[in-house]
Design brief:
The protein has 135 residues and is mostly beta strands. It has a single domain, classed as Metal Binding Protein, Guanine Nucleotide Exchange Factor, Chain A (Beta Complex). 5% of the residues lie in helices and 39% in strands. The protein is built from one helix and ten strands; from the N terminus they run E-E-E-H-E-E-E-E-E-E-E. The strands form two sheets. Strands 6-7-8-9-4-3-10 form a seven-stranded mixed beta sheet. Strand 1 and strand 2 form a beta hairpin. The longest helix has 7 residues. The chain is globular.
Length: 135
């Protein structure tokens, strides 16, 4: 069981692993939502995701039609994303996990959108968009 929380601790959650489709996303939306050069995200089944505390602190932003980014309105921590077209899954923002895990990113996605000052410095595969199969 994976445990996670926001920066201020108002929101706490658990999620059943394993983490799937772990990727480093360089898209503009992930960069702006995280404030970093890329966001590390992974998918878990929605049926295994449970809020333990802080439901009233959650806010959602519809970043594109049917796609919602969920964050703590107290501290601004991005926590997860959900999609109307894939309701069986939740996309976790891995920086908010408190539990250590063994899975590793499979690839870098949307590298065509990364800023020119950013450099991919590992040997993971890179893709300009989302590949057909990432594992």
């Amino acid at each position: 069981m994976l445990k996670g929380s926001c920066l201020c601790g108002a929101v706490r959650f658990v999620a059943e692993g394993p983490l799937k489709l772990m990727a480093c996303c360089h898209c503009v939306q992930c960069r702006k939502a995280s404030g970093a050069e890329f966001a590390s995200n992974a998918t878990v089944k929605a049926c295994g995701f449970q809020l333990l505390a802080g439901e009233s602190a959650l806010k959602e932003y519809e970043s594109s039609p049917g796609n919602f980014r969920v964050f703590c309105h107290e501290c601004g921590s991005p926590l997860y994303a959900r999609s109307a077209s894939h309701p069986a899954y939740v996309r976790l923002r891995l920086g908010c996990l408190d539990t250590e895990f063994d899975e590793r990113p499979l690839c870098h996605i949307f590298v065509s959108e990364k800023p020119n000052w950013s450099k991919v410095s590992d040997d993971l595969p890179t893709f300009d968009t989302v590949p057909e199969k990432t594992g």
